[in-house]
Amino acid sequence: MSDKRRVNQSSKEEQLDKFTVDDQGKDLTTNQGLKVSEDEFSLKAGERGPTLMEDFHFREKMTHFDHERIPERIVHARGYAAHGEFEVYESMKEYTKAGFLQDPNKKTPVFVRFSTVAGSRGSGELARDARGFSTKFYTEEGNYDLVGNNIPVFFIQDAIKFPDLVHALKPEPHNEMPQAASAHDTFWDFIANNQESAHMIMWAMSDRAIPRSFRMMEGFGVHTFRFVNEEGRAHFVKFHWKPVLGTHSVVWDEAQKLNGKDPDFHRRDLWEAIENGDYPEYELGVQILAEEDEFKFDFDILDPTKLWPEEDIPVKRIGKMTLNRNVDNVFAETEQVAFHPGHVVPGIDFSNDPLLQGRLFSYTDTQLIRLGGPNFHELPINRPVCPFHNNQRDGYGRQTINKGPVSYHQNSLANNTPRPVSEAEGGYKHYQEKMEGHKVRARSQSFEDHFSQATLFWNSMSETEKGHIIQAFSFELGKVKSKSVQQQVVDMFGHVSNRLATTVAEAIGATPPQVEDSGVTKASAALSQLNTKMKPATRKVAVLIDHDFDESVVNPVLENLKDVGAQPEFVSGKLGMVKGSNGKEIEINHTLLTADSVLFDAIYIVGPFNENSTFYKQTLPFVKEAYTHFKPIGATEEGKSILISNQIEQGQGVIYGLEQKEFSEKFIDAISAHRHWDRQVV
Ligand code: HDE
C-alpha cells in the first residue's frame, strides 16, 4: 500500500488495494507464475540461428504487447482523472432520498475524469473545445455517475443527431485533418444547417472552451434530471460544479502555443496540484424547480440547448468534492473507467429530454466495444462498493465465480433469490410520470427558439469576452474554405447579435447579415467569467533570476507569495544553483530553453541582468509574450530595464518601483486578478 493511499482510506480505496500490485523488488515471472531466467534474448537454434516456436516466454510477452491497445473513446478520448471524496453540507431529504445526499458526516468516494471532446487520445489539451467533467460517486446504494461538461448546454436537441454532429466535428474523413479542432468546413457546415447549435456555439467560441486548468472550470449536468424524495414527490433539478478557485481561462494565442510547449498542460497541472497537496475542490450546486413550475418559462426545461438563468432559479450549493489522490495506473483506472448517465441511485431520476434519453442507450453500448464485452463492471475502477448479485452470467473476461446451479428468476431452488427488493428496502423504482401521446418523429414546438439564449449569453459577456468571441469566430471561419459555409454562419449568427455577425463578416470578407437579431436584452451576470472568484492560490510565478540577486528585496517577496499559496519557480540562464547577495542559494527549476512564458500565470523579473548575456536576450521576448497575454508582471529595480526595453512599464498589472511590502501587496493583487485586459498590446 502506498503512502498517499493511507491518507485517504475509504471503502473504494480498500477495494482497489486488493487489485493493486507493486512489482518493484519482485522476481520476474511469466503470467503463469513461472520464474524467468533470461529476458533479453529469444530462444534460438544456435547463437546466430532462427527463433524457436517453443519459446513460450517470447510468445507470451509479444502476444500481450500486440494486444495492449483498446479502441479509444469515440468522443472524449483525451482525458485525465483523479480520486477524491464528496461530502454533503446538509441533508437534502426534502428533495431527494439519495443516500449520499443525506448525512454531512458521510464521505462518498469519487473518481473524476476530465476530457476534451474532439481530439484523439494523444491530442493537445488546449484545443478549443468543450471539456468533459464526469464524476462517479461510489455510494452505498450503487454507483451514481454525473457525466457532465464544462458548458451547460449542448449542440443538438435529439440524440439521433449525435453521430452527425460528431462526424462533422472530427477530422474530415478524406484527409484526417484537422486534429482536435473545430476550425474546418464540415463542422461549420453542420452548425449552419442545424441551427439549434447556436447557443452552444456561443459558449464554444467563448473563453470557456480554453480553460486555464481543470481545477478552474465549472461543470454542468446539462440535462434536467429529477430528485425524488422519500414520499415519492419529485422536483426537477439541474446539477452544477463550482470550482473553489473560480473559473478562469487562457487566451487563444497562448492555448495554441501551449499545445506545442506542453500538450499535457492540463493533466500536468492536475497531477502536480494533487501531488503538492493543493487538492482541487468543487462545490456541488443544484437548481431545483417544482414540478408545477415546468411551464413557467419562455423556454422548455426539457430542451438541452437551454440553461436556467441563475438569477431566476438560484444555484443552491449543497456539498463539496475534493480530489486528493492521483491514479496509480492511467490505463487501469482512467482509460477503463466506464461512465453512464443511466447509473443512478434511488432519489435521482431522468427527465424526458430527448438528448438524455438517447444517452441512456449509448454509454453501455460503447463500453461493450471499447472494453471488449459485458463484464466491464467487474474492472476494479468500475466496481460498486456495495455488493451486487443477479443472474447475469459468463461473457468475455468474467471474473466473478458465481456458485450454484441457479441463474434464473423466478426460481424455487434458491428460494427465488437473488430477490427483487421493495422500494422501502431500497429497491429502485422509476418515477411514475404520467405519459400519453402519439408516436411521432418530431421536434416539440417548444424547442424551436434557437437564438434567445444565445443572445442572452452574448449580452452577459464583458467587452473583453465579447472581443474574444469575435476573434474566435474570425479564427474558426477564417480556416473554413467554403465561402458559402462562411456566409451561412454569418447569417445564422446575425440572429444572435448583429454586431457580432457584422464584425466577423468584415474579418472574413463575407457580407454582413441581412437579418434581425433575437431582440433579447436580458443578461445574466453569472455567465461572465469576470464575476468569478479571484485568488492567488496555486498560481505559478516565473522568477527570472541570476547570481547576486538582491536578497533583502527578493526573499521577503518570495515569502509573501508563498504565504498566499502562489508558487514561485526559478528560471535562469543555466540549471544549478544561483547565489544571492548574502550568499543564499536557490535551485533553478528551468532555463529559458525548457520553460516558456505560456507555462506561467505571472512573471517576477529579478535579475540582475548582464545585457550581453543570452539569458538577458531571451528574457526580453519571454516577458513581452507574457505581457501580450495580459499576465501580471512584477519587477525589481534591476528588472525594470526589461520593462523599459519592451516599452511595457506603463501597462496595467505591471508592478515595480515600490517599497517591498507595498510591492508584494500590489503584485499579489495583480496575480489574483488573473489577467489585465485593459492593457494596450504592444
Ligand atoms: Fe457523451 N458520450 N454523448 N455527452 N460524454 C461519451 O461514452 C453520447 C453528451 C460526455 O470520461 C461516450 O464512454 C451521445 C452530453 C462525457 O469516460 C459515448 C450523446 C454530455 C463523456 C457518448 C452525448 C456528454 C462522454 C464515448 C448525445 C454532457 C466522457 C465514450 C445524445 C452532459 C466520459 C464513452 C468519460 C462520452 C455518447 C452527449 C458528456 C459514445 C449519444 C450532452 C463527459 O457513449
UniProtKB/TrEMBL annotation:
Heme binds at residues 73, 113, 162, 359, 363, 370. Decomposes hydrogen peroxide into water and oxygen; serves to protect cells from the toxic effects of hydrogen peroxide. Keywords: Heme, Hydrogen peroxide, Iron, Metal-binding, Oxidoreductase, Peroxidase. GO terms for molecular function: catalase activity; heme binding; metal ion binding. CDD domains: catalase_clade_2 (cd08155), GATase1_catalase (cd03132). Residues 29-417 form the Catalase core domain. Pfam families: Catalase (PF00199), Catalase-rel (PF06628), Catalase_C (PF18011). PANTHER family: CATALASE (PTHR42821), CATALASE-B (PTHR42821:SF1). It catalyses: 2 H2O2 = O2 + 2 H2O. The keyword Transferase does not apply. Residues 1-34 are annotated as: Disordered. This is Catalase. Gene3D superfamilies: 1.20.1370.20, 3.40.50.880, Catalase core domain. It is an enzyme of class 1 (oxidoreductase). It comes from Halalkalibacter suaedae. It comes from the Bacteria. InterPro entries: Catalase (IPR018028), Catalase_AS (IPR024708), Catalase_clade2 (IPR024712), Catalase_clade2_helical (IPR043156), Catalase_core (IPR011614), Catalase_haem_BS (IPR002226), Catalase_immune_responsive (IPR010582), Catalase_large_C (IPR041399). Belongs to the catalase family. HPII subfamily. GO terms for cellular component: cytosol. One of its GO terms (biological process) is response to oxidative stress. The keyword NAD does not apply. There is a cross-link at residues 340-363 (3'-histidyl-3-tyrosine (His-Tyr)). The active site is at residues 76, 149. Its cofactor is heme. Its EC number is 1.11.1.6. Residues 1-26 have a biased composition (Basic and acidic residues).
